[in-house]
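The protein record filed here:
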Amino acid sequence: MGNQFRKAVESKRNQLMTSLIEMGVYKKEERHLFQLTLTDLEEEYGKAVTDKKIRQEKDELTY
């Protein structure tokens, strides 16, 4: 059971890192994404999604 959990966590970390890289996020402060915990990655992903939405809204207002 522990091995399955570890694989699931690692899979989720990889998904989040891939998504963050696609959004142009490579580091949190001085730490590379692969150095972050799952919780840190989830927080960074949430921030990146929020930032992306704000940028899109600003772009829509300029048209």
User: Anything to note?
Assistant: The mean pLDDT is 93. The chain has one domain: 2-61. The two ends are 53 Å apart (CA to CA).
